[in-house]
Model the fold of this input.
Amino acid sequence: MLIQDEESAKAWLTDTLGVSRETMALLERLNAFVVAEAEHQNLVSASTLAHMWQRHIVDSAQLLRFADPRVDEHWIDLGSGAGFPGLVIALIAPCQVTLVESRGLRIAYLERAIAHLGLGDRVQVAGVALERVPTVAADYISARAFAPLPRLLEGAARFSTENTRWLLPKGRNARTELESAPSAWQSMFHVEQSLTDADAAILVGTGSVPSSNPPRSVLQRPMRKHRSRS
Ligand SMILES: C[S@@+](CC[C@H](N)C(=O)[O-])C[C@H]1O[C@@H](n2cnc3c(N)ncnc32)[C@H](O)[C@@H]1O
Done:
């Protein structure tokens, strides 16, 4: 099944995912907030503003086909930008959510969006580059249009445990990116078809990503000390 228009997108949320009327109203509130903010900064591609439900809201919510986060679980969304998928997940699921975003304007927007949507008690912005986010164990890690797979997994490896669920919408290159990855990563992930784009796919996996390098923050600290001493 492919969702190709706004009405089908809303129907999928209510009929298949079981989203309540109250949550649909909050998703509409997010929709309007993104569209208004798009007049001030480049948050999503302008051509998608008329198709927000299909291109962004359901494109994000479809990750919940592969996840059922509980109240006490922690979801980390890398490179949240306009809040996709992180804010949509936070509106539909009851878990704790951290939105990692490094650009100042987007950090400010995300903080306003969290307040506007009444999510302040369980959603936070880590407003720094991923490399500088303190390490915590994540139950779920998502990243849409964030970085090529090797950089994404290397950067996020330290947040993963053997139970971490990875949900990585990868567009048209999902299969190729996975096939070019080290075999340890290939065995962790499989490819799921996107519901919103016939050519796009999602990499879904579970487990602790073995890092082939120490996290960058660990590499950089001794190098900086060394330079300042010499
Ligand atoms: C192409 S946008 C995608 C935004 C959103 N996930 C979506 O799909 O609409 C990538 C986002 O990642 C952020 N970003 C890039 N590198 C980052 C890093 N190292 N740490 C945190 N955020 C980063 C950018 O500022 C940008 O907002």
Q: What stands out?
A: Strands lie at 74-78, 96-100, 123-126, 140-143, 165-171, 189-193, 201-206. Residues 214-230 have pLDDT under 50 and may be disordered. The CA atoms of residues 20 and 45 lie 28 Å apart.
